[in-house]
Amino acid sequence: MIALTNISTPEYMNIPPLSLLYLGDALKKAGYDVQVFHCPSDQIESCARRIIRKDPLFVGISVFTGNQTRFSAQMSREIRKLSNIPIVWGGIHPSLVPEQTLGEKYIDFIISGEGEEAIVELAKAIERGRGFKDVKGIGYKKNGKLVFTEQRPLIKNLDDYRLDWDLVDIKKYYLSLWDCKRVIKFITSRGCPYNCTFCYNKRFNMGIWRAHSIDFVISEIQRLKDEHGIDGIGFYDDNFFSNPKRAMEILTAIDLPWEVGTNIKDISRQMLDKFRNIQCRGLFFGLESGSDKVLRLINKQFTTKDIVEGIKTLSEYKDIYISASFLIGLPTETWKEIGKTIDIILRLSEIHPRIGYTIGMYLPYPGTDLYDLAVKRGFNQPKRTEDWYLLDRWKNIIDPVWMSGKDSEKKARNFYMIRKYSQIIALRHLNIPIISNIPQWRLSNRNFSFPIELPMLSWLQQRYANKSSFFSRIMHKIVKVYTLNRLKQN
Question: Which comes out higher in pLDDT, residue 351 or 422?
């Protein structure tokens, strides 16, 4: 048996470990018994003991740079304390930081890049106890030295592998969204043709976009409908619309409500009319900044004018939920430029009051273009693998020394407030006197002193956003009645 493991914080346990389902499919086709362990970060010790009791050939751990590095290090140490089972790390982090990762005593092998072919060949080599040098795309230890084999080419035909949902209890990953109860995350492609300078994709996927065939995707989604009663899909691709014709054929054929991420520059009424006719429920946009200078720095290939025009068009389609993400704290960014991001959020919320926002702190991922700039401006790479947990977009536990000016510490203190008040600005849609205007006032005046109201507003926003809750349903009905009454009065 081979144990495949992924560790998530409790709030993200409803996102399926898609990479492990692909790896498990590859191993099962090669004749191996596979078990997937999706472990909550607060149950690492008990999960490690369960894995050890299975006595697997090896433990494969999928690791993304950030808090997963610390959790995965804890898991590896727990396993190592009780057993000599080989430990293999794969995923984004060991691919971006191979030498440091493999140098840890608790890691025996790493897989760099895509893992489906490499993990099967590595499993056979571990069984034999030899032949590691012939396995492309791995790192291993020999006589105390680190050895890295030739880079493995990207998989030519993604249809050779599928998400094997039999490896998990799929019910744990159902999401209640819109009017659906069994929405599942799904992926149809890998990579992205864009070259955003903060993204790992350029190095991990060589800047190349590849996709499952249209027939394969439609067939797999139909299987989910037939076998599990799936009633909605959230596409998790890095760039689902790299091939628009392919994307539209899939969305038209699946006959399900769906949500997906796309580029604001591609938005048009013609596109949205088509989306509405084929059950589009939600669109996500990485808007990133309100400063054209910063947008050029990160190579987004659109401007603030494109953002505003796109949201104006989207505001006409109120049945499609819109969410947008922004980044602050980028290398060379100034407080004035962060202010432009705050201002564009306020402007967009006037144009389209129901947009949901997330604001994350920029993180210097190794292997990206901006990483080198962050290093030049003072960022020091963590000395230990587990210390990459500092790259946490939501906790602001790293000092953005790479920013412009001497007030980076002040900016870091304010990041949390900017993020929280931007998240709850959608409460303006409720039109509750005073309460609805607090987030706008705080952001407009850059005044985050004594935020005594923040816990209550955050609670209200979370309950309102959770459309499956009783509270949310009641509030949405109240808003609907209130809005109709205002229209009659006008």
Answer: 351
Return all residues near 21 (Cβ < 8 A) that are at least 6 apart: 36, 163, 164, 165, 167, 168
CA distance readout (Å), 71 to 9, 55, 64, 468:
9, 21, 10, 31
| Nearest residue to 58 (alpha-carbon basis) of 87, 82, 27 | 87
Report the distance separating Cα 278 and Cα 149, nearest Å: 47
Looking at residue 53, its pLDDT comes to 95
Sign, CA torsion 41/42/47/49 = positive
Q: CA angle, 311 as apex, 359 and 302 as ends, to 5°?
A: 75
Tens digit of each residue's pLDDT (9 = 90 or more) over 356-401: 888 888 999 998 889 999 999 999 989 999 999 988 877 777 888 8
Bridge-partner residues for 210, per DSSP?
Answer: 190
Mean pLDDT rounded to a whole number for the chain? 89
- Residue 481: its pLDDT value, please? 44
Q: Could you give the domains of the chain?
A: 2-148 (3.40.50.2300), 171-451 (3.80.30.20)
* Threshold 0.85, pTM exceeds: yes
Amino acid at position 262, single letter: T
Question: Whole-angstrom Cα distance, residue 24 to residue 270?
Answer: 41
d(CA 431, CA 435) in angstroms, rounded, equals 8
Say how far apart CA 288 and CA 326 lie, in whole Å: 4
What is the rounded CA–CA span in Å between residue 375 and residue 121?
36
Instruction: Please check whether residue 353 is in contact with residue 428, taking contact to mean a CB–CB distance below 8 angstroms.
Output: yes
Specify the higher pLDDT residue, 466 or 200: 200
Would you place residue 488 in the very low, low, confident or very high pLDDT band (cuts 50, 70, 90)? Answer: very low
Question: Which residues are within 8 A (CB) of 25 and not within 5 positions of it... i.e. 6 or more apart?
Answer: 116, 161, 162, 163, 164
Q: What is the Cα–Cα distance from 2 to 35, expressed in whole angstroms?
A: 6
Give Cα 320 distance to the centre of its chain.
21
| Dihedral sign (CA 158, 162, 168, 172) | positive
Lookup: tokens for 89: 């790390």
Could you tell me which of 302, 287, 300, 362 has the C-alpha nearest to residue 332? 362
> Which helix (DSSP H) or strand (DSSP E) does residue 2 occupy?
strand 2-8
